[in-house]
Amino acid sequence: MSDGLKAFLLKHSFKNDKAMALRIWETVKLMIFGFFLCVDAFLYVFTLLPLRVLLALLRLLTLPCCGFSGSRLLQPAQVCDVLKGLILVLCFSMMHYVDYSMMYHMIRGQSVIKLYIIYNMLEVADRLFSSFGQDILDALYWTATEPKERKRDSIGVIPHFFMAVFYVFLHAILIMVQASTLNVAFNSHNKSLLTIMMSNNFVEIKGSVFKKFEKNNLFQMSNSGKIFSPP
């Protein structure tokens, strides 16, 4: 092989390696951004949301003193904050009645194949719940904040609210069962379940990597993977 051909191949190999490194770095930056975005959304529920609910309640308490002007007691954003706070408190209270130890031992007593099937079913159910749950919460917020000509129209918020509470409660139980299944897989002496779960994830990654996506679809998929709306 001549020196010119070696130099040509080395040059193009360096360009390909550099392009691959840049793509990997961009992917890592996207993952880091998504991680901090998820942390921000998680901390919002326990830091900013209680403060916003407190400000909304203070507005309600100070309305008789300051005088009421306008057609709304609260702004639409404040109404959504109060609803989020109520859903969080109610679901937190309801989760106290769930026996996690019994759930863990029931899952632990199942065979490896059953646990693998249960875990896959939980993943599918989680995606379905996330899809329908966002619509339920959006319907609740829209029903609560849309302009109403009559006061009796506000009654429609009640069924939407209870439906949202029921959804968040069921989704929380689903996540707890999924976490208990992973806990059993990690703490079990038989590591075959953990191996099967990891191989299943690699199969999903392989299907996503070797599938062609348009730029718009890839952008939407990246956003849906790293952004979620807190209940």
Word description of this protein:
The structure is a single chain. The protein has 231 residues and is mostly helical. It has one domain. Helix content is 81%, strand content 0%. The chain contains eight helices and no strands. It has helices at 3-46, 48-66, 76-95, 100-108, 112-145, 157-187, 192-209, 215-226. Helix 4 (100-108) packs across helix 6 (157-187), helix 5 runs antiparallel to helix 6 (157-187) and helix 5 packs across helix 7. The termini are far apart.
The gist of it:
InterPro entries: Tatp1. The protein is mainly alpha-helical.
Keywords:
mainly alpha
Mean pLDDT metric: 76
Principal-axis shape equals globular
What profile does the largest beta sheet have? none
Share in β-strands: under 5%
Q: Please count the beta strands (DSSP E, at least 2 residues each).
A: 0
Low-confidence stretches: 226-231
Structural classification: mainly alpha
Provide a count of the helices.
8
What is the CA-atom radius of gyration, in angstroms?
A: 25 Å
Helix content percent band:
over 70%
Distance between the termini: 64 Å
- Provide the domain count: 1
The SSE order reads: HHHHHHHH
State the assembly state of the protein chains.
single chain
Family: Belongs to the TAPT1 family.
Transmembrane segments: 30-51, 82-98, 157-177
GO biological process, one term: cartilage development
Subcellular location: Membrane
